[in-house]
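hi! just following up on the protien thing from before. the input was this:
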Amino acid sequence: MARPGDGIAMAWRAGCRIENMEFMQFHPTTLYHSASRSFLISEALRGEGALLRLPGTGERFMPRFDERAELAPRDIVAAP
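and the predicted 3d structure came back as:
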């Protein structure tokens, strides 16, 4: 299964010049359900109080990375 960025990494390994990565769109908010396929949801849900939790444990993880927790901007929420 391809992951985000796989195509860019493949192009880089093939010798292509990679530039303007700051314009790359990514979306860190997915609705997860164990019996259904995950899908992207609006970031507005985080603004309305939705919490980001780890699958399996349900633990909130964003407070470890930013004082704004789920309200942190996209570049922080999606950082590896």
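The mean pLDDT is 81.
The beta strands are 30-33, 36-40.
cheers
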